[in-house]
Amino acid sequence: MRQGDFVTRISYGGDVVFKIERIEHLKAILRGVDFRLLADAPLTDLTKTNPKETLDHPRSSSPEFRESLRRLAVSQVQLQEKNQIAVNHKQKSQPAHNSYFEVPGRVLHLDGDPSYLRKSMQLYGELRVPAEGFFIPEAQMAEALQRLLPQYKPDIVVITGHDGILKNRQSVSPSNLSSYKNSQNFVNAVRVARQFERNRDSLIIVAGACQSHFEALLRAGANFASSPARILIHALDPLCIAAKLSYTPTRETISMLDIMDLTVTGLEGLGGVETRGSYRMGVPGIQHTEESV
């Protein structure tokens, strides 16, 4: 076994594909390929899997995730059609071509995994979501946000990476933050973001990863978080929520019930509180929107 190998754990029936991040004293530190899961295992518990059988980007080609992307794209088209109908109705005597412009919510995405970050940034671009992304180790996210939030002033911040319940500890309690690999780091980051902007509609926070302490993240100030049922969440579920919020008008309020079908893991994987969107329509239509607004 070497660093970079793709492996599964024999004791878990090979249910999750991991990549070996490093090896320490006959133990491998593992990062999930399909899921936002950080784990460790003895080298004797690992078996190699063919890298050709894994995707370059986690589950981006799975039917469930393709359906999530399709629904996001459809919702954007429906919003554009709704906007155009409203403008046409008010401008009956004038041509309505390019008669409005869009100001979607801006996303600041912090990710503890560089491969997930690259895929997320690619998908933000495909979905026309203005986003800035940074690879930040989970333990450094709170400090990084103190610098990045004043600089970028986002409407939505995504705080994600890897997490998991430490099953090898003698006293593991799902209610105790010390039972999780990175939930405390995510909570610290959420607190910094909420101190920067206390209004949950002015700064929307999406936080957490696989098996994260859902309740603690909400108490810290997150709008949406993982994982209510302490399950493994799809690697790109946080992106789907952020993309939907970016294209939800500020006058509309959405809940997890409205967007659960945009995620792969649904209400077991993510939950949250009612939140106003961050999308604004502007009139009349202008060119070079990014430079003008």
Relevant terms:
Peptidase_U57, alpha/beta, 293 residues, Sporulation-specific protease YabG, Rossmann fold, protease, 2 domains
What would you say this structure looks like, in words?
By secondary structure, the chain is an alpha/beta fold. The protein has 2 domains: 6-53; 63-284, Rossmann fold, CATH 3.40.50. The chain is 33% helix and 20% strand. The protein is built from 9 helices and 15 strands. Strands 8-7-9-10-11-13 form a 6-stranded mixed β-sheet, with helices on both faces. Helix 4 (183-196) links the parallel strand 9 (156-160) and strand 10 (204-207). It is elongated.
What is the first-to-last residue Cα distance?
Answer: 52 Å
CATH fold annotation of the largest domain: Rossmann fold
| Overall average pLDDT | 88
Shape: elongated
Number of strands: 15
The largest sheet has its strands arranged as: 8-7-9-10-11-13
Q: Indicate the CATH class of the largest domain.
A: Alpha Beta
Strand residue content: 15-25%
Summed up, the helix count is 9
Overall number of domains: 2
Helicity range of the residues?
Answer: 25-40%
Structural class: alpha/beta
Q: What integer value in Å does the Rg equal?
A: 20 Å
Can you summarize the main beta sheet?
A: 6 strands, mixed
Enzyme class: hydrolase
Protein name: Sporulation-specific protease YabG
EC number: 3.4.-.-
Organism: Paenibacillus allorhizoplanae
Question: What is shown here, in short?
Answer:
It is built from 9 helices and 15 strands. The chain is an alpha/beta fold and 293 residues long.
